[in-house]
């Protein structure tokens, strides 16, 4: 069954809301790690990538 444009926008709007929250949290974490904790921006970038890689490996095992 093919989705209409309105249905596609509806599904996308729900996903957009959670992505706004996730991006806001990542921005605050990046600020904390660089300006307060003192890590370099490159270290923070590597940290975020490593965490995403671990998440990609573990999520299928958890069933998400």
UniProtKB/TrEMBL annotation:
Protein name from the UniProt record: Putative membrane protein
Gene giving rise to this polypeptide: STY3806_2
Pfam families named among the record's database cross-references: MFS_2 (PF13347)
Keywords (A to Z) from UniProt: Membrane, Transmembrane, Transmembrane helix
Lineage: superkingdom: Bacteria
Transmembrane portions of the chain: 12-33, 39-58
């Amino acid at each position: 069954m093919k989705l209409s444009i309105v249905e596609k926008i509806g599904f996308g709007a729900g996903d957009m809301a959670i992505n706004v929250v996730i991006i806001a949290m990542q921005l605050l974490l990046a600020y904390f790690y660089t300006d307060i904790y003192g890590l370099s921006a490159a270290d923070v970038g590597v940290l975020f990538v490593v965490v995403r890689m671990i998440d990609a490996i573990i999520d299928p095992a958890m069933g998400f």
